[in-house]
User: Fold Pyridoxamine 5'-phosphate oxidase family protein from Amycolatopsis rhizosphaerae.
Amino acid sequence: MVTWREFTEAAPRIAEVFLRRHAAAGNLCLLATIRSDGFPRISPIEPRVFEDELWLVGMPGTTKFADLARDPRFCLHTATEDAKVAEGDAKLWGVVRDVHDTAQQRRFAQALFDETGFDIRGRAFDHFFATDVVGASSAVAGAGHLDITIWKPGEAERVVRKH
Assistant:
């Protein structure tokens, strides 16, 4: 498994597209999980990079977190706003780890408050999911072509140009 920091070092092109599109969409992404009946679920989420990890944290009691607690596999997609993907989009897939470090959770809540004003300080986390990335891709349109960058752990990024 590859942590966020390791991923950004191994796949800088995809990481740049992911972070740029994530920020442009107000930090909104779409999270795919597997429901208890085996069907996929798509949910909005605002993942956060904190202490060199990509975190999936949110409202307590949500079904997307119940999905991840049962089956840790996920796919995370930047919110695509343009069908031509002129600004690009990116997908990450991997697994989550539920981290039970209350000191780190307190630091996360403080950092969130400092950065956004959203105050969850002092609240207990149902789940505090760090991600391990097992693959990623991005797509960026150019003049008459689409560059698709693909990455898997242990391999270099590779670009496939579609005309």
